[in-house]
Amino acid sequence: MLDPSSSNTDLPAIPGKRYFTIGEVSDLCQVKPHVLRYWEQEFPQLKPVKRRGNRRYYQRHDVLMIRQIRSLLYEQGFTIGGARQQLSGETAKEDQQQSQQIVKQLRTELEEVLHILRR
Prior knowledge:
Elements: H1 22-29, H2 33-42, E1 49-51, E2 55-57, H3 60-75, H4 80-118
Antiparallel strand pairs: 1-2
């Protein structure tokens, strides 16, 4: 069940719940709970909600992030540092793309305002 060589396509579907316990995430991602706790320390993107008694509750985006980390480490052969760098690079690319979209939208709006003012 916890075979690192199995691919993400072999993982079970994520149910439509809001929160998942560490045991449920362990089953969904086929990673042992102690590995999940370790990854929390190594990957700043992974921040489950902690409630009473320091119990972890993962959301859907956390489960998807864990599956991505698992893929990078177990299937693509990245080291922890390399996977961390890969994930931070992807978020930087997403931020850059979002910034470019905002700039394009602002430019379009400003051109419309200029067109209105020239009338």
